[in-house]
Amino acid sequence: MQDPLPTIDSRFGARLTIDLAALAANWLDLAGRVAPAECAAVVKADAYGTRLERAVDALARVGARTFFVAHATEGLRVRGRAPAARVFVLNGLPPGFAADFAENDLAPVLGSVPEIEDWADAARMLGRPLACALHVDTGLNRLGLSLAEAAEIAADTRLTSALDVRVLITHLACADEPDHPATARQAERFAEARALFPQARFPGLAASIANSAGIFRDQALHADLVRPGAALYGGAVSTGEPSPMRPVVELEARVIQVRDVAAGDSVGYGAAEHVARPSRVAILSAGYADGYHRLASSSDDRPGGHVAFDGRRAPIVGRLSMDLMAVDVTDMPAVARGTPATLIGPGAALADIARAMGTIDYEVLTSLGRRYERVWREA
Question: Could you tell me which residue ranges the Alanine racemase C-terminal domain spans (predicted)?
Answer without folding.
Answer: 248-377
